[in-house]
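hey m, so remember when u said the tokens were messed up on ur end? i reran from scratch. heres the input so u can diff it against urs
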Amino acid sequence: MPDISEKIEAILQSLPHKPGIYLHKDAEGVVLYVGKASDLRQRVRSYFGDPSDLGPKNRALVARIADIEFIVVGSELEALILENEYIKRFQPKYNVRLRDDKNYPYIKVSLTEDFPRVYRVRSFRRDGDRYFGPYTSSGAVDATLDLMNKIFPYRTCRYDASAWAPPRGQEDAPPPDWKLKRLPRPCTQYYIHRCNAPCVGLVSREQYDAVIRQVMLFLEGKHDEALRDLQEQMVEASENLEFERAATLRDRIQAVESVLEKQKIINTTGSDDQDVIAIAGQDDETCAQVFFFRGGRLAGREFFILQGTRDTAESEIIQMFAQQFYDSAPHVPGEIILSHEPEDSETLRGWLRQKRGGAVTITIPQRGDKLRLVTMVAQNAREALEQQRIKWLSDSQKTSLALDELRDAFNLPAPPRRIECYDISNIQGDNSVGSMVVMENGKPKNSEYRRFRIKTVEGANDAASLAEILRRRFQRQQATSERMPPEGSLAQGAGEPLNEEGASADMLGDPWALLPDLIIVDGGRPQLSAAAAVIEELGVRAPVIGIAKEDHGSISTHEEIYLIERPDPLVLPRGSQGLYLLQRIRDEAHRFAITYHRNVRSAGTFRSVLDEIPGIGPKRKKALIRHFGSPRNIASASVEDIAAIAGMSHELAERVKEFIGNGRAVSVSE
């Protein structure tokens, strides 16, 4: 066993021979990995045996473990459920995890509403409504919704429909307090045949429910059932001599048939619902491709990107994908066909059975039609991953070129990996604020953006304001650097990128500690001079430049870049990738500063003398302003007029007049 700390040794000795989950943490308490085990003692101790028995990924993980937390549960199934929850909560660096899984869109059918709607949402909840997904593309969801709305005329408005028809089950005897209240006329959707207008009573609840039932059949991939349902309704309408409705249903049938003709049909040997999943990996990412078969017919397909898969076995990758995907999927099919055997198929099968509420078969085919199907899905996974790689490479090449151009233009020793940009926002000196935005490798690092309230500068002085926020930022950096561990510490041995002082951001847990490779200030020579003075005063080893948009009359408007060592501004050529990158980060800093300034300004906009009056809270203040329009008008009103406002008493009215009755009240907004 390698050398380990006394703390880790004590934890290993205390581990029980019971099922549960374990959390590996670093020195800052950050969760590095969440795992499950049928025997916690045996599983966790396996990390600290002979290092040659571990893969590269686990060796890097073990080098960073400073603490271990474990939770004992009653069974392996409970451990799997808890493992899913903790991975979703902490997104550990060394776990296989779905990329941005919380952002995958769903299609929701709001069955709990009167006259249900069909629309896109960003989360799945067990609230009695029907969800379909997750989907990886918002564009594909929108296209599906648009297509369905052309075929099935359901409402897309957000009106409360509870008064359009009596409550369900009480049509014959509505509640005494219920009143029928419909809209005066239908909207445009009705006239373009995309809604059957329940809002004006042009369709009954039963007819509208039939449309929603067809929508759900369509989304479930049960197109044949949807067609049969439509055909039965068309025959019924014809027999009842409702020829116009029968013609509408006929057109709808033709539209569904047209969609099915264009769809690529692939049949499976089974007639039940099946999902076929295959994976393809490259570097630290893996693509999981899922084909959804409903009733033996391909109903749809989606691919998902998993991160943290470098040096990870296919059995673990497909296990973790299945856990995370079906944890948020509204539907679990009766059979799941996989390209690889999961790491713990029995526990996975039991969990899926619990999620489905019925039997679930996990199949890893070795021959025959199902193997050919898995091979086809795996090929699609490889192609999807390659397309993602090409897209990323295209963006990456542009960013790399931009950073190289900045290195050459500003005589930097290397391309600037970390760039910080600062901007000031105020209106005539009021509510002055500053912003700091960060780009790493040409991409925004939103988690490290910072906002500043200007504390020491009066009036509109952008140069002095910039000096203040830069001084505060780098004094914070220096204070943090004093607490940094020496070189050769744990983080350095793990191969993490180090800053100039020999410590990684992960080890420090504080982005303030990082020094930028390039500092940008929004402004010309005055702003640059103020920033450079602070940098020199604090001894910060980072180059600083200024960027300003200059208007040269009829000639052109272009960006001028100011450098300390150059008397004249530098102008990068139009079309330069380096110029585009500078503009992007400058515009982002400006946007971030403006947004913060608006928030600060709006917080003070509605302050007035009313806020100083005892007994006048937000509701009474709102009622007074709504009635009188402004504190000035309140000052002109009589005590009786003020007391007549809802929530006001004669005593409060007299108090208001006592404060502002002489007409001296002027709100901040005025």
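this time it looks ok to me. Residues 487-508, 552-556, 662-670 have pLDDT under 50 and may be disordered. if urs says something different then somethings off w ur setup not the seq
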